[in-house]
Amino acid sequence: MPNPASSKQRHRAFRNSGYRDPRAEPGSASSNGQPKKPRDRTLTRKYLREYARWLWPYRWALLVVFLLATLTAVLDLIWPLAIKRVIDLLPAPMEYADKARRLNILGASIVGLLLFKQAAEALRSYRTTILNTQVIFKLRRRLYEKLLGLPLAQLSGPRLATLALAQRLVAHSALELVRSSAIGCRSAIRSFQNNSNR
pLDDT tens across 38-71, in order? Predict the structure, then answer.
């Protein structure tokens, strides 16, 4: 039998040689030599239900972020088509005045499209940051309340350090929220001052 010339032919010959992947067989060993445990589908479904229940209050915010991300992705695909129209219009045989008018309209529409895309991207980024802050703050508060609900006997030693860490996380979250709003206000004021000085 001649040697296969391409990698595809070598792969086909290898698969036809009767090799069986031990990872594909049920009950095979994992990378550490231990037999694989079967996945518990009920546990996976339980976690998915809990995750969906936990994200349910944020469904509209998630939908807005998803729609804004889709809009910016679509706008990213549209403006190169507008530039293609400009390039196709340049060598077209028509009067100079008509060509200049069409080029001005296309140029203005490209600039307007890019400005709209950037505004949508900025809004998406802002909404994502706000949603992220809300979710993280809720997680930290939940962790803190869980640790506060533990009996004192369980809070000795390393668990006390965990409680202190949770306390710092909640304080850090509130501080970050105040700091991010202050930075946003400061940048808006600077932008307004720069525009008024022109």
Answer: 777 888 888 888 888 888 888 898 899 999 999 9
| pTM of the entire predicted model | 0.55
In angstroms, rounded to a whole number, what is the distance separating the alpha carbons of residues 146 and 128? 27
- The answer to whether 67 and 123 have CB atoms below 8 angstroms apart is no
**What CA–CA distance (Å, rounded) separates 27 from 34?**
10
Measured distance CA(175)–CA(181) in Å, rounded: 10
Spell out the domain ranges in the chain.
41-188
Cα–Cα dist 123/33, whole Å: 50
Q: Is residue 103 within 8 Å of residue 86, measured between CB atoms?
A: yes
Structure confidence at residue 35 (pLDDT): 65
